[in-house]
Amino acid sequence: MHAAGGLRLDYLSAAEYRSAGRADVLGVAAFSGPPAPAAGTGEIPVAEVNTPVLLGTAHVYEVWRADQPAESGRRNRVRFRRSESLLFGCIALAESEAADGLPAALAGPSALHAATEEAYREIRATLDALGYPHLLRVWNYLPDINRDTDGIERYRQFNRARQEALHASGRTLTGNVPAASALGAVSGSPLTVYFLAGRNAPAFIENPRQLSAYRYPPQYGSHPPVFSRATLLRQRDSLTLFISGTASIVGHRSIHVGDTAAQTRETLANIAALLEEANRVERAARFSLGSLACKVYVRRPADVAVIRAELTRALAPGSRAIYLQADICRQDLLVEIEATAMCPLKADA
């Protein structure tokens, strides 16, 4: 997926990744095990995410490129690569490492809380130091996301720690917040976060069919998740829409509980609503279901054929999707889809 003058997103197999050019690569997320990069790619930050690939190749590489020269660097545990206007970064932090590295008074109520706060503190410090103040899109992967530890579900622990870390750094917690996803990873994996940031602020898009996540009622936890349903980045020659992890939620309630096909259709209806809203907000946009690159998270691997069939019926032939096994933030949700859409801008737009 490529928009002239802007970002490019590719989903590649291991062989494709090794043979592809890398001069314009900002960063990579590798799914289902560590990558096998070709010689000379050591400076490219790679987020290693332990979520099994369900269809096709055993390894998938999500490759972000920019039509600008880029340089690599590292600040504490954040590895990054930046162009003039964009930065890709990643950090992986074992919970035991975070808890052991902090005084007891600062370690928070759990090891996951400590790891999350530390990861977000380092991310914000990196962006502040380098001058990329606007988080555009964040991907979070934490093991055992639905398990209760320390008396509370781990996803709720993560939400509390993320909110506290952002608040401590002076960031807003509602409205102008990045698109994001939070998924489960294989037990024993570190907390892994990767992100895109920019020098210019995006537009923040909410779904008319859903309550904004940061306004969820207390039944979903004492600290609601801090993300927008989508963010829209306008560059000189292109538009990029980052759609957050989206599921079968209307208002704030999960619907079609137990019905995988119906949940998939409802999820796609929510994505279609976001595309329509983005086209309304940005008059030059022409986003459609045919312009999407989708990452599909499947709770139960046996459901992948049903989910794939629904996507094949709904999406245009130009859309692309990869399928990963991952637990989802609510235990009654069986599928979650995130998407990226790109389109060029006309010269007079």
The helix tally amounts to 6
Alpha carbon gap, first and last residue: 21 Å
What is the total domain count?
1
Instruction: Note the overall shape.
Output: globular
Q: Could you tell me the number of beta strands?
A: 20
List the strand order in the largest sheet: 5-6-7-12-8-11
Here the CATH topology equals 60s Ribosomal Protein L30, Chain: A
- CATH class categorisation: Alpha Beta
Assess the beta-strand content as a share of residues: 25-35%
Mean pLDDT score, rounded?
Answer: 90
The low-pLDDT segments are none
Give the class from helix and strand content and strand pairing.
alpha+beta
CATH architecture: 2-Layer Sandwich
Write the H/E string, N to C: EHEEEEEEHHEEEHEEEEEEEHEHEE
Helix percentage: 10-25%
Please outline what is shown here.
With 349 residues, this protein is of the alpha+beta class. The chain has helices spanning 14-19, 95-100, 111-130, 154-168, 260-281, 304-314; strands at 7-12, 25-31, 46-49, 60-66, 71-75, 78-82, 86-93, 134-143, 148-149, 152-153, 179-185, 191-198, 203-205, 230-234, 238-246, 249-250, 253-254, 292-298, 320-325, 335-344. It is built from six helices and 20 strands.
Give an overview of the whole structure.
- With about 350 residues, this protein is an alpha+beta fold.
- The chain has a single domain, classed as 60s Ribosomal Protein L30, Chain: A (2-Layer Sandwich).
- The chain has 6 helices and 20 strands.
- It is globular.
Structural descriptors:
349 residues; alpha+beta; 60s Ribosomal Protein L30, Chain: A; 6-stranded mixed β-sheet; 33% strand
